[in-house]
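During the reporting period, we have paired protein sequences with backbone structure tokens. One record among many follows, to show the layout:
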Amino acid sequence: MARICARFDVVGLLLGLVLLSSCSGAELPILSSSSPLVDFGEVVLGESVEATLTLANQGNVDAEIVLPIVSGADGADFVVADAQWPVTLAAGASTEIALSFTPTRSGTLTAVIEISAGLASALSGGAGASASSGASLAVGLVGTGLQAGDDDDSAGDGDDTVGDKDDTVGD
């Protein structure tokens, strides 16, 4: 069983991030992301919007990133758009992960994307290879599903009051 170590740095403390990696004494990948949260904003039901998440390997060895897992109550509304997995991420390098949000209901929708990596040589090794010998990272996903015409700033669309400072007549 691998021990898990938590690594804090100044940026991580400010953003509330904890980078996880195993503590076997060997050189391992260390994953970090450009943001602890990807906000897709407001999207009309049935439409899609894309966003990218930058993933970096701050470790001293190459990492093999396996297909990220999206989970949570609204996980089905968020999709990893990249098709080629696994991805080898060199030590000190970064890559972008394309994400898509297609809301199926109104309201705030949330999920988590979990990204796991192991030593490139270990994960490509076949049976028994596991990302648990490397690093993992979780990033929050959020978006708001809107009914068509429900934009809170159009006078007369039934979801606002003229003159209440969240709309302008005629816009």
Remarks:
- The helical segments are 10-15, 120-123.
- The CA atoms of residues 6 and 76 lie 30 Å apart.
- Confidence is low (pLDDT under 50) at residues 1-23, 122-132, 160-164.
- DSSP finds two helices and twelve strands in the chain.
